[in-house]
Amino acid sequence: MRALEGLQPENVFRFFEEFSAIPRGSWNEKQISDYVVGFAEQRGLKYYQDEVFNVIIYKPGSAGYENAPPVIVQAHLDMVCEKNAGTEHDFEKDPLKLVVDGDFVKASGTTLGADNGAGVAYALALLDSKDIAHPPLEIVLTVAEETGLEGAALIDAGKLNAKRMINTDCGGEGVFTTSCAGGLRVSLSFDAERTAAPDGSVFVKLMIKGLAGGHSGGDIHLERANANVLMGRLLYYLSAEHDIYLADINGGDKDNAIPRESSAFLAVREQELDALLSDAESMAAVFSNEYASSDPGVTLVTERLSYDFAPRTVFSGKLFKAVVAAILLTPNGVQAMDTNIDGMVETSSNLGSVKTTETGVVLSNALRSSSTSRKKMVEARLHALAESLGATAVSGSDYPAWEYSKDSAIRKVCVETYAEMYGAEPVVTGIHAGLECGVLGGKIPGLDIIAFGPDTMGIHTPEERMSISSVARVWDFLVEVMKRLK
Fold it and tell me: Which of 28, 298, 337, 451 is such that its CA lies 20 to 30 A from the CA of 286?
């Protein structure tokens, strides 16, 4: 028996479960892309698959809609691959373990991929339907959205004819998104400088864990703790009180997720170990007090390492100081609020990952802003910081914002439809996160866009869950909108 068997709408959940068995992390989408192509071939639908595995599927309009203007329904194939510590799951080959918990679908110990699997399932259900009224459809399924909208940037817009688009990568239910922030990624890289640990050193592992994490755009305003920043503070404090040496530091996996965990390996003289651990616990108490509301689970775990598991070398003093300084000085969190939209974040930066590699240490940052000039300002700060600390800064994955349109025909249809179906006015707003709407809108002049989706919570974390009842209501709404797009 399938985990989601019996859930309604049947086809939406059936397709969601089918492709949840297929690995689909960013830039690992060939299998899911081929699954979608096979889906189209089985139904005799025309399709286009490009060299990076974006897919466009075309379906003629239903009876009476053959000559209606076409509409794009757009979603992304990839998902953020995060798992809880101790969860055995290989995102390169293992299927997700889906679980139904009351009104929610979840995955056991991992992200669910409802971002944006819900939208993909909607799109496939539309393509599979035989009794839904709709205009000609151009289903656009992109890759590598989560790593910087690269798939959308690479897609051939010449293959598309529609001038109106529904993006399914935004929710929750009853919220229509009509603008989004642009984004940029900036990495700071330090070359490896290592030396032998002082004679008589013992090694200890410090691990900050239990943070709430979340989406670096949608959750950044919640002021949740960043595990990398906390580790930087801890190391700075301990280095001022003790003669310590850093051997390794790692925190976070994706720069678009607020990191929930960070770890560091330290060398310290035996006689200082107890005092070091005591001071570390004192700092952990400070963190618990500061983040009692936003991150009540913040915890510091310490472990003395046996010789067999201890690193053999440590960072040079210069590299240690530079890395800690970079963590402390890197812009992180909300940088500016939007002065035109009450409560909307305009500009933010997230120190999403800190990685020790064979060649050095890399700090990865995700910048977001609805202001191009402010985005460039934060980028300049990071480049200036790198230059002052002897690091190399590299910018990439620059994508544009999607600006609000005062006169949107598709928004008018959606707002009127929602009000008639549910007896309430929807929320029409912008989002402080990157959507492919800005990229595709830049490629197709005059593209009229709206974005919506069902209720999903905890995206980009292993606590991700999707409301079953909301999926059904949004599906009914989407079907009615299709009927009205003549």
Answer: 337
